[in-house]
Write a structure and sequence with these properties.
With 239 residues, this protein is of the alpha/beta class. It is built from nine helices and seven strands; from the N terminus they run E-H-E-E-H-E-H-H-E-H-H-E-H-H-H-E. It has helices spanning 19-30, 58-71, 95-113, 117-123, 134-138, 144-164, 182-185, 189-197, 207-218; strands spanning 10-13, 34-39, 49-52, 75-80, 126-131, 169-176, 230-233. Helix 1 (19-30) crosses helix 9 and helix 3 (95-113) runs parallel beside helix 6.
Length: 239
């Protein structure tokens, strides 16, 4: 049985080669979806199609969307996952680091959606899932640029939820807390311990737990009447 209603639907995932992105690709594969993902440096899990693309380059994303639709089929779902961090206290953030984070984490989403949203509207169906962060919901010391970009993602998703509703296109957010990825594992152990003390479940998320939340929000069966919403997957850290 197709429990998620995603079998044979084409899913487009940005930054699907590692971490949470790779887990999303693998979970969507399990639902029977036909998954395409982009990567910046090295490819990751198996999928229908994986190719190098730069979300900060509008022409690159135009090509990625065209190639996906021509080689795999009409896109139904988009997971907007690509993101970077360049952390520092606000007075020490360089102009280059501020713009780099905003350009990837926010402008990259615009560049990805600009060529695909009109097609979804024309077809009268689709689902967008934006990957934000608990940092975008509550802020975090040393991550002003990242928090700003991830908060903006929520505002954009809610707006597209309102605009897309008349076209049958849903738009939602999954906001993970601290997750066991290479980025979190690189945090010094003492800092990890302090973070864990603030998480009621007393552990970091497994990437697959975040990925199943994405599959849920993507599903027209499980979440067909949910749009403009934020699903926080953070172990109770922020509610």
């Amino acid at each position: 049985m197709d429990h998620f209603g995603l079998k044979d639907r084409v899913m487009f995932v940005t930054g699907g080669n590692r971490g949470i992105g790779a887990a999303i690709v693998e979970v969507l594969n399990k639902t029977g979806a036909r998954v395409v993902y982009t990567y910046r440096n090295e490819p990751g899990p198996q999928a229908e199609l994986a190719f190098r693309a730069d979300v900060t380059d509008p022409a690159s994303m135009d090509e990625a969307i065209d190639r996906t639709e021509n080689e795999v089929g009409p896109i139904y779902g988009v997971v907007l996952n690509a993101g970077i961090t360049k952390d520092n206290l606000f007075p020490r953030i360089s102009v280059e680091d501020w713009y780099a984070v905003i350009d990837t984490n926010l402008n990259g989403i615009f560049n990805t959606l600009r060529p695909i949203v009109p097609r979804l509207y024309d077809r009268g169906s689709g689902s967008l899932v934006f990957i934000s962060s608990v940092v975008g919901e509550q802020g975090n010391i040393g991550q002003a640029n990242y928090a700003a970009s991830k908060s903006a993602v929520i505002g954009l998703a809610k707006t597209l939820g309102l605009e897309g509703a008349r076209y049958g296109v849903r738009s939602n957010v999954v906001a993970p807390g601290f997750t066991s990825t290479d980025m979190v594992k690189a945090i010094p152990e003492k800092v990890q311990e302090r973070i864990l003390q603030k998480i009621p479940l007393r552990r970091f998320a497994d990437p697959e737990e975040v990925a199943w939340a994405v599959a849920f929000m993507m599903s027209p069966l499980m979440a067909g009447y949910i749009t403009g919403d934020v699903l926080s997957v953070n172990g109770g850290q922020y509610t």
